[in-house]
Amino acid sequence: MPRDASHATLFPEIGMFLELPYPSQGIGLVSPPFAAASTPLGFANELAVQFDQSPTEIAVLTSTGVQIMRRRRLVDIFASLARYGGDAEGRDGQVKKFIRNYGRTETAATALAVACGEASDGNADARITNITEPDIVDFAREAFITQGGKPMLNENSVLDNNTPAIDNVRPSPRHDGMALYITRLVRSIWRAPVLTQKTTPVGGLVVTSTVALTKLQNIQRALNSLQEFLNKNKSSIEGLSGPESLGRVANKQDELSLQGEHRAMNALIQLISSIIEGIAFVLVLFDEKVDEIVLSLPEGSRERARQLTYEGLFCSPDGRNLAKELVKAIVNRNIANGSNVDTVAEALRRRCGSFCSADDVVIFKAQEQVKRASEAGPTSEASRRLLNESLRLFQKVAGSLSMEHLEWAVSQYIPMSFYAGAIQLALTVAHESDRANRALSWLRDDCPEDDPRQKAFEGRKQCYDLIHQVIVSLEQTAEANPDGAFSVTAKRQSEAYEIINNSEDEVFQNNLYDWYMGQGWNDRLLEISSPYVISYLRRRMDKNPDHADLLWRYYAHHNNFLEAASVQLLLAKSGFELNLEQRIGYLSRARTNASIRTVSLLDTAQGRQQLLREITDLLEVGNIQDDILQRMKSDTRLTEQRRPQVLKALDGQILEVAELFNQYADQAGYYDICILIYHCADHRNPADIQSTWQLLIEQVHQEAENSDQMRPFEAVALKVRSLGQRLHAAEATFPIPILLPMLLRYALEYQNNAASPMWVMDTFLELDIRPSALVPVIEQMYYTNEQPFVGRHRRILAADLIYLVQAWLRESERHGDSVLFGSDDSAAGIDELLTSLAGSQDLDAANQQAVDILRGRIAQAMR
């Protein structure tokens, strides 16, 4: 019938009249009623089902018999072109006419079907057979190759420079025809479920194939023919011929078009392989007892199996993963029934290799070894050999070992006390999952958020979590069986921790230490001799004081006292929420550690002294701040609102000396602390120091008079002694030429009737200040008639001089000096002083007698 020009895409139909030799008696439909779809849309799409349904057949009853009339499919019509089309030129004309009627895509699909043996015809015996005649197949092959058209690059659609130009290539009609042919082969099963599950009246499960197995075999056979055809002719088919075809392109546009064609054709090749293997897997599955296999799956996988379609099996990762689970169930069932795993796995590999790879076979073998070890008994020697062999096999395929397989292996190893093997396997799988060590670089970069490397770390962490489970089980077993250091349990424990501590996986070591800290097993890190402990703690110490505290303990435990002191100094100076007492404690221990001398190539005297100096200086400031803090706690001048603010500011980080002086000590009138700050800051202004000492003495005197707990002179003496000890009687801040006259004037003015008239001298002598340093000061006061020591008050200075000379003499004798007072000059000077005192009117009878005795002893010693 003529084609309507307004409907260029409609396929024409051609009819003919058949003349029967005899009158017909009846007519009827032999084949099922035709219906390409159950809905009006697509109901008459005969081309779509020409490989899926048998052609329509009509029986005509005549007086001589039954005449069968069979409707020819388009593929059969195309095959007849080769048979009845005449010579080569006539055939070419028929092909061009076919193209005009049906288009290049349909022509390519039909030619491909004929080339793959899908066309059929009746023979002399009235039987329908597939057409495989070489000349017809070659004709179809040539038509598919030469009339398939060319790919096109649509440059008008290239709008975004970020989109690759190859994405705008429209594949050739040859590609579309090939896709159309594949679609028609699998259309009837594409969305069909793989399994149909029914429940028997007694509650059992019956699993059957939704699609007849014979139909699956026919589809597989057709796809195998297609795959064979493509492999045989790929050098002639544009898009499959490989890189050499690029040498024939004329310009860049043709090159891009050819690359796009190759990509599209290669995708179809992969789809064909996937469908073939998927059908092969289904056929293998239904060769087994599917009911038992499905029941052996977890509940979630069983539901996924019920919903699995052929489309999901062929194209989706989830479907292929489920297929691998079913393969695993098939293998496990055969192993349980006593079958050899090699035989079963090899059969699976041969029929559906992508669902059962070489690595899968090794995994199955390893699982078989584990099961045999379990049957042999966990304590037997044979069991250990089998477990070691399973570990070797698992490690061999660690790169493709799924988390499910790893979890299964670890769960089997633990009850058999194969702790070392479980740990080693988990470490190997973690390493193989991240061979580029992206997790380590992420860790060293301080674990940035939303970083693609974090995924690698999370994958490794799953393996490490299994190791944590092994350690917990190991510890529980060790606690339940305290049989001594030479027991089997102790041996297994030693093996496991040897692998853990000797592992060079830094990511694992960091994860393990984090887990130890989370479990409260901080002290375990002290026993580990590994550089990873130090790097781990140093990386964490800036964020957590517990890690910093553990780091200095680790250094001290391993006799690296200088580094321990450095960490303690950092802790004392850190911004962590530490109170002042804790910071002073760290500094005190740091000073002790820095003072310990060890033999080390890295330990230099200069560095040690510099560190010790810094620690000592900061400790001194910390002690001063603590003094201020304790005073502030009980200072009644602070209001209840102000007190918490002051205490919070002081009970934390160690402040600068200037801030302590200006903001607290000086304003609060803590003169003793001000003097300590002078010493700490090396402040040497005599006027400031003298005035502060004077204010301090007056303050202490006044407080003692108000409290009645201690006599004022005793309180002043006690304060001077305590400050002198803390200042180490430093010349700048404990100036004897200033302080001694000051105290003597105080004693004369306020404490003239003290119980101990020599309390001033005793105060200095108790600070281990030698009499030789005190005598010149008082001697000068005596000779210069310094106020108020004039007149009868000169006797006080004279008595002090005699008291000091006696103390000096006792000291000289105690030291065994060859010359009294240390030298002849000193002795002569003392003799001259005593002579001057003896000739004065400033001595009472007792002191006069003491002078005579001293002069006699000096004269005797100088002979």
UniProtKB/TrEMBL annotation:
Q: Which GO terms describe its cellular component?
A: nuclear membrane; nuclear pore inner ring
This protein's UniProt keywords: Membrane, mRNA transport, Nuclear pore complex, Nucleus, Protein transport, Translocation, Transport
Kindly list the residue ranges recorded as spanning the membrane.
none
Q: Where in the cell is it found?
A: Nucleus membrane; Nucleus, Nuclear pore complex
List GO BP terms, alphabetically.
mRNA transport; nuclear pore complex assembly; protein import into nucleus; protein localization to nuclear inner membrane; RNA export from nucleus; transcription-dependent tethering of RNA polymerase II gene DNA at nuclear periphery
A Pfam family (short name) is Nucleoporin_C
The membrane topology of this protein is: Peripheral membrane protein
Domain Nucleoporin Nup133/Nup155-like C-terminal residues, every copy: 172-834
| Gene Ontology MF terms in the entry | structural constituent of nuclear pore
- What PANTHER family does the record tag this protein with? NUCLEAR PORE COMPLEX PROTEIN NUP155 (PTHR10350)
Family that this chain belongs to: Belongs to the non-repetitive/WGA-negative nucleoporin family.
Q: State what protein this is by name.
A: Nucleoporin-domain-containing protein
